[in-house]
């Protein structure tokens, strides 16, 4: 598996890493992290098979996660910087994928305006 931007593999790996981190948090912290670990796993599979709905949901989910991670980082929680970096990489990968898919769709219809 080659990790390049625009193939959604980076996003799938980031979601798997976040599922692992949330799973670890369940054993040492509140149980609310359990559903998020399950959501990360479901989204990772959906993104890996390039389900467009999963990509859209993941984009919103990771965008909100990035937003909150930046707030935590401003508050001084340094480990959230790693989460913010992972979210940024995943969002970059999904935007590259969406740009490539939109280019293909525009090429099929002959419409160049996006």
TrEMBL record:
UniProt keyword terms in alphabetical order: Membrane, Transmembrane, Transmembrane helix
Q: Could you list the residue ranges that cross the membrane?
A: 7-25, 31-48, 60-78
Name of the protein described by the UniProt record = Uncharacterized protein
Species assigned in the record = Thermococcus waiotapuensis
């Amino acid at each position: 598996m080659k990790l390049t931007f625009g193939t959604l593999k980076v996003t799938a790996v980031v979601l798997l890493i976040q599922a692992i981190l949330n799973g670890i948090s369940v054993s040492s912290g509140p149980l609310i992290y359990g559903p998020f670990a399950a959501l990360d796993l479901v989204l990772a599979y959906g993104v890996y098979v390039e389900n467009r709905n999963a990509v859209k949901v993941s984009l919103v989910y990771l965008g909100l996660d990035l937003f909150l991670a930046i707030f935590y980082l401003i508050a001084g929680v340094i480990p959230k910087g790693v989460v913010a970096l992972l979210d940024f990489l995943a969002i970059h990968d999904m935007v590259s994928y969406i740009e490539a898919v939109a280019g293909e769709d525009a090429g099929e219809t002959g419409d160049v305006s996006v």
